Amino acid sequence: MRNLIAFLQRFRIFLVFALLQILAISWYVSYLNFPRSQYLTTTNDISIQVLEWEHDLTKHFNLSKNNTQLQWENIYWRKRQPKFMYQISRGKYKIEDTVFEQQYTYIPAEVINSSVTRRNNYFTINVGKLQGIKKGMGVFCHEGVVGVIHYASDHYSLVKTVLTKDINIDVSIQMKKSDLPGLLKWDGRNPRYGMITGINNDLRIKKWSKVVTRGGSGIFPKGLPVGKVSYTEPIEGQALWKVEILFSADYRSLQRVYIIKNLHLEEQEALEAQIPADEE
Amino acid sequence: MNVVYKHILRFIVLTFLQALIFNQLNIGFGIHLMIQPLFIMLLPFELGVIPIMGLAFLMGLIIDIFSNTYGLNASALVLMAYLRPVVFKFYGPREGYDPLKEPTAHDMGTRWFSTVFGILLALHTFWYFLIEIFEFSRFFFILQKTILSGGLSFLLALLIQSFLLNRNQKK
Fold it and tell me: Of A240, B63, B80, B124, whose Cβ has the fewest other Cβ atoms within 10 Å?
């Protein structure tokens, strides 16, 4: 016993050091996958208040650029509104649509805090559980995919952006004949460029072919823009392409985003839960 | 000004400078400016290692909360606090440090300050990016980020320190 106390006294500095390191690193590792509470994130009450004050000051910096974007988006949808179109056949048909049903609804939000220089970049947005935000919902902006909800508190939530280590959004490269499915990744270098893994190199990929979401997991609708292929290279020893893409959205000056709510997600999950588990 | 108040003021000012301004800056090339090591460096000589580690952990955690890094800054700062006495001892005068002096460039000389602070900052930054990226196959990427971010942070720290010092001398 005395030996133990003497040991503790001699190494107490190192023990405190080891304890603090283990605490910090275990928090870091566990929160990357499963944030358990809001206290270590920007969504806690005090930090969100400070960041809101800061946002009130800095939100005007990119205002004119964002307004121009919104205007273009308005024009895009306005052009597609039936009531503004020239009607060729008048009064002949009355459409009661039973063919199409709405599958996705969108919740608008504003980015309060963001970062693009780290290995894992998160955005804090000003909607939360009270607006119906849940972990795992998709987030996009006018120009492209932004990420997935990582943690939601009552009034705010944290978006795990495509600029993180293990984002793994399923995307496909649009080709003339068929689409090539793959997984979106980010290597931590440049916030303008991402990577796609899992593309077989039996087909040639044209430069600047479009990359869109595949919509398989029910998080994103099919065909949301992600980016364009900017560079391909065969991986040595594997039958795969190394594909680099240029993101269509500039995440450095992003202010307005939309959260996707899939109205059919519960149905899809209930159905997929019926798949029997593999028995070894 | 009372010594304790001075350090509390430094703690608050440096934490919020880091959390609200330098975290938001996007210079490019993956550069991430960090000035929180300056606070650990400027703590008095006679303060024990364990209180320094406690302060480092607290400061790191506050910055983590503001930047969604969940303990990464705390880990790097605690490492720096742990190694601080070791580096101080190695570069210290033979008869020990004068307790009336402070570990600043003004009191101890620019050469001593830049050597000691440079070593500590390099260790801190290297550890930070090592844990953040955590892919040993990309060692040169980690090294590149360390050199770029560490170099710029070092210049920034010298600049900020000269500001703080000038203000202290006037009072």
Answer: A240
> Which CATH number belongs to the domain containing residue B44 in this structure?
1.10.1760
Interface of A with B (CB under 8 A): 12-13, 16-17, 20-21, 23-28, 31-32, 35, 39-42, 44, 47, 50-51, 54, 58, 113, 115-120, 122, 124, 158, 188-191, 252
Judge residue B20's burial from the number of C-beta atoms within 10 Å of its C-beta, 0-12 exposed, 13-18 middle, 19 or more buried.
Answer: middle
- Return the SS3 of A199: strand
> How high is the ipTM of this complex?
0.88
Pairing between β-strand A169-174 and β-strand A193-200 as defined by DSSP bridges: unpaired
Subunit contact A117:B31, Cβ cutoff 8 A: yes
B1 — pLDDT class (breaks 50, 70, 90):
low
List chain B residues with CB under 8 Å of A25: 71, 75, 131
Question: How many whole angstroms separate alpha carbon A220 and alpha carbon A100?
Answer: 18
Domain A47-76+101-274 sits in which CATH superfamily? Rod shape-determining protein MreC, domain 2 (2.40.10.350)
Q: What angle do CA A271, A276, A280 make, to 5 degrees?
A: 155
